[in-house]
Design a protein that fits this description.
With 678 residues, the chain is of the alpha/beta class. It folds into 5 domains: 85 residues; 278 residues, Rossmann fold; 143 residues, no CATH class; 57 residues; 45 residues, no CATH class. Helices cover 47% and strands 17% of the residues. It has 29 helices and 21 strands. The strands form 5 sheets. Strands 2-1-21-20-15-3-14-13-4-12-5 form an 11-stranded mixed sheet, sandwiched between helices. Helix 9 crosses helix 10 and helix 10 packs across helix 12. The longest helix has 33 residues. 34% of the residues are buried. The model has no long low-confidence stretch (mean pLDDT 84).
Amino acid sequence: MRIKPRLQNIVRPLVENRFLLSLGLSVACGIVFTSSFPLNTASQFLRLIELERPPVFRAIVWSYGLFLYSTPFLACSMIFSLLYVHLYRSDRDMAAGALPPYPDPRTRADLSLVIGEVHRQLVPAPSPGPRWLSISERGLYTGIAAFGSIGSGKTYGLILPAMRQLFAYHADDPERKLSGIVLEVKGDLCRQLQRILKWCGRERDYVEVSLDGDIRYNPLNNSLDPYAQAFNIASIITSIWGKGKEPFWQQSYTDLVRYVILLHRIRDGYLTMVDLFRTVISAGALESMLVEVGARFSTTSYIGIGRDAYQIYETLLSPLGFEWNKDVDLYLIVWTEALEDLLTQETSATFDILTRKLHPLEQRQRFESIDYWYWEHWKFFRSEVKTSIIQGIAVFLSLFETDPDVRRVFCPPKDLYEGKPCADDPHGRVLPPFEALIETGAVVGLNFPVALNPALAKTIGTMMKIDYQRAVQLRIPKMDKYPTRHFRPTVFICDEYQNFATVGADNPTGDERWLSLSRQPKCIPIVATQSVSSLKDALPNEGVKTLLQALRNKVFLTTTDPETARYASELCGKADRTRISYTVSESSNNANVGWLSGRTSSSKGSVSASKQYQKHKEPLFEEKVFFDLKNAQSVVVAFDGVSPLPPTYCYLKPDFLPVTMSWFEQERIGFDPERIQA
């Protein structure tokens, strides 16, 4: 029960001095009663007692005087006791004590994250000895998940303070500062990230991928296996448009995209989403590409000329179509008898006739598998089946074809990756591999608001996340190979995580698999989502359970989702509590009904009362608690890397409010930054 401070100021001195007040009031009342109601010693009955039993008479006189003082004392004590029980709140209960000094993230000796302030574990009330709830470095590697409805304070209460603390750690040390990636869907988080990096002197470490920037990112240009890339694309298609009951279609998507990616890599060593789209949608492009690549692997005779001889007769040889082959260090052209006679008659250059396979055996074997798939499998599909498969992929891939800005940013030409000038994009710069970005301390932000194109934002964010996760996992063998080398921690931050989550028993690159391995390569995952239900809408139900158990630290803000409240209450656990029950029973003999009163009565009766104590399990936090949480007020289930911490109320520190002010002080002024600064 909340008591107004003004009433507390009246009640507190009365209760704290209740003994002296009771004693004074009883003396005053006794004096008044003695003068107003003196004992009538002239009563014949008392005079008889005085004559017959003088000691009894004196006892009556003294006890009468005593009762005139003791009775008011007992009455006053009872009144003050009722005030103490029902209205009094001590200073220890009412006032929040001063917070301990906040550790400046720029000067912290050890890596840690302060979640918020803790007062009382199970009661949302101030404490005279508050403390900071801090998660150590080992605990951070086990992941943090925040759940909260719209406006509960996930971004300003957890995401922004986490970025400020983590990216400010050793900000001036090139070898120890943290790297990371930030994914968002709102459109303002990257702007906040820039401000934070500027505040800690790291504005040069920021790399932003956006439609209006000069950074180019090709999600297909990496060393990821073609099957894994194809499966990721098929999984994104399924998550956007839903999964049918027949698995044939998703398997066909994956199969077709896999072989097309592999064929482009063999032919060009490079491909984009636009190349993939145009090859898939064209009926003759795939077959013509197979024929072209197959010609390279045929056993053909070539005429080879060295570099020096070619430069001497370049005027004659260049129009003939000689091409430099780095595998044999010669200029090559397909042998013909006429060409051999021409070179013999017109030049004195020495040339070789080569009959060999100029491509590595591994590439040839891959091409043979593609060739066999196409002619023995794909060719036998009916045209309507092929159309359905191609249409399912084309709808997704066309997102990169129709928008020129998207094509420019996410489908850059190969020349940019080879470091050559590109006339179509003179200011473009490719995003370095995530392996290099992580080790150099860069912070990557994907600024692609979901409002621009929800499907495309989900696609780019998911593929960039997978690319980053692969780079993180590749650190494990490096860390094992160089045990004495310092590897900087890296941070993965994702707001509105339900838009980018990928998980499932049939997904080889699910987030739960990566989270189970992210501790060893020193990655700090921090995600925020609205509810458990929002994750279930984007992921299979069983996959959600696996994903949530991989994140050891959980922050529950106010929610309107019953499933989230139920999950949080169960996660916080139960405790033994004593339940007291009272039983009152009445029994009577010879009962009868009165003629006048109409009530039952008896000549003999008895009344009995019993009190029982029972221990039982009750949740530490009922489900209703999570519906009643206020802004920036949370229940945290934390893990310090060694042992779990008890669930507790925790009050987050919004990034726009001073950390030295208690949450209860901020609540009184309504979390208004202008009023706080005033």
